[in-house]
Design a protein that fits this description.
Layout: E1 2-8, H1 14-28, E2 35-41, H2 53-61, H3 75-80, E3 83-86, H4 89-98, E4 107-109, H5 123-126, H6 129-149
Parallel strand pairs: 1-2, 1-3, 3-4
Helix pairs in contact: 1-6
The protein binds 4-nitrophenyl phosphate.
4-nitrophenyl phosphate binds next to loops.
Length: 153
């Protein structure tokens, strides 16, 4: 079983989008029994809130179903995960601050697996939920390809 957690700032836009997109992708490839998948925010600012409606609508428009309630990342969550996939450099900094610089080998930017490593810009500020979807989909697809090509799954 591979434990993957996706992390952003608020856990109402990018990381729950990544969680549901990756769950969908894994299911389509018949690999759902091999993964534990969840998402967290580095901040508690949206704790208890559901996916931000424009992000939810973007997922629904691409036939990605599911729900999520925002929760803040803890050190234990990092320790228990095999992969901690963050959306941007700020998230990476915040996770490593939480761990005191430990576990850096499993804390990676989601789009570092793509041909074009980049941050997933925060649609909370950019309002570009389509761009967020495309970047997250690319990151998840390349991450899953990496796992299968290296026979980790
Ligand atoms: P996310 O976006 O990190 O992709 O969930 C944000 C959501 C809420 C806030 C910031 C970013 N906020 O400041 O409330």
């Amino acid at each position: 079983m591979i434990s993957v957690i996706f992390v952003c700032l608020g856990n109402i836009c990018r990381s729950p989008m990544a969680e549901l997109i990756f769950k969908n992708m894994v299911k389509e490839r018949g690999l759902e029994g091999s993964f534990l998948i969840s998402s967290f925010g580095t901040s508690d600012c949206e704790e208890g809130n559901r996916i931000y409606p424009p992000a939810k609508r973007m997922l629904e428009s691409r036939n990605v179903k599911g729900d999520h309630v925002a929760k803040q990342l803890s050190l234990k969550d990092v320790i228990n995960a095999d992969y901690v996939l963050v959306m941007d450099s700020g998230n990476l900094f915040d996770v490593l601050r939480l761990t005191g610089g430990k576990f850096g080998e499993k804390v990676l930017k989601l789009c570092s697996f793509t041909a074009n490593p980049r941050d997933v810009a925060d649609p909370w500020y950019t309002r570009d939920f389509n761009r967020a979807y495309e970047d997250i989909f690319d990151g998840c697809n390349c991450f899953l390809n990496y796992l299968t090509e290296t026979r980790r799954v």
